[in-house]
Design a protein that fits this description.
302 residues, D-Maltodextrin-Binding Protein, domain 2, alpha+beta, 6 helices, 21% strand, single chain
Length: 302
């Protein structure tokens, strides 16, 4: 049996080393130079810095009127505050139709339908002063009695509200005058106002929920900046009602209209907001969506 010579072993090792060096040089794409490197695919004179990442597809001045089409990540089952507004798209669309009693601004409570509120020392009685001069989009006045009727509907077992465990903690709710509503709780709750930032505080028109009954979720009416034109196509029209977030009177007769794509349309890198609330006074509610602006955007609101 012959053993390989030292010269042959050395030649084989040298060949392997040169092969490895050649392979590494090939992986770098041949773009390396002394003291500098260039990213793959770059060209001389390129000034791209990545600043165009996640920028708007369209730019221009906002205009009154026109359409906005936006995508949602799932179909919407109901727009009834008593229903399961479980997906971000459900909540964001509902907030185009309803005003909440209270919202958050800079991490603190801020009134929308409620102007101010106070509590008793034992934290079981909460008194809310409501904003005056508001109407629902069907013309029904917004007042303390409307808040009472809305709350009692949520408490009614026949409504089968998903919020039942929370509204069960409300012992009573009374309208002490047209613009004052008093909640009495079964136990102290220092964070009761937070309950009114969600569906419990999305006040529905008593006229509408009495008219539509169990089908109200397809015919929602609130005080918000939009009214529902079609549930099947999820088409909303800008309203001229006197809610806190509705548009000021305009000389333009054209209303802004919003439509959504009912099929899921998630897109990597899309902004987490939807046009129907992007110009409202409440902070944006995160909701993954992709959107395409067709004819400008909605006008400013209070």
């Amino acid at each position: 049996m012959h053993r390989p010579s030292v010269r042959r072993v050395f030649a084989l090792a040298l060949t392997l080393v040169l092969f490895v060096i050649a392979a590494c040089s090939s992986d770098n794409g041949g773009d390396t130079t002394a003291g500098s490197t260039k990213p793959s695919g770059s060209t001389e004179g390129s000034t791209s810095t990545g600043s165009d990442f996640n920028q708007a597809d369209f730019e221009g001045s906002p205009k009154i009127g026109g359409d906005i089409t936006f995508g949602v990540e799932s179909n919407i089952a109901t727009l009834d505050p008593a229903g399961a507004l479980a997906q971000p798209s459900d909540v964001v669309t509902a907030l185009a139709i309803y005003d909440p009693m209270i919202t958050y601004k800079n991490g603190k409570y801020a009134g929308v339908l409620a102007d101010s509120w106070t509590n008793s020392k034992d934290l079981k009685t909460w008194t809310f002063k409501l904003h005056k001069g508001i109407t629902f989009t069907d013309g029904t006045p917004f007042n303390a009695q409307a808040v009472v009727d809305h709350t009692m509907r949520l408490k009614d077992p026949a409504t089968a509200c998903v919020c039942a465990p929370n509204v069960a903690l409300i012992s009573s709710v009374k309208a002490t005058d047209p613009n004052t509503v008093v909640y009495t709780l079964t136990q102290p709750n220092a964070f009761f106002p937070s309950q009114l930032t969600g569906p419990i505080g999305y006040i529905a028109s008593p006229t509408a929920f009495r008219k539509w009954g169990k089908d109200y979720g397809r015919h929602p009416v609130g005080t918000g900046p939009f009214s529902l034109k079609s549930f099947d196509s999820l088409e909303l029209d800008k309203t001229r009602a006197t809610g806190r977030r509705t548009t000021r009177a305009s000389s333009s007769p054209t209303s802004t209209r919003s439509r959504s794509s009912r099929s899921p349309t998630p897109r990597c890198g899309s902004r987490a907001s939807t046009p129907v609330t992007s110009t409202s006074s409440r902070p944006p509610t995160p909701a993954p969506s992709s959107r395409r602006s067709r004819k400008g955007s909605s006008s400013s609101r209070r």
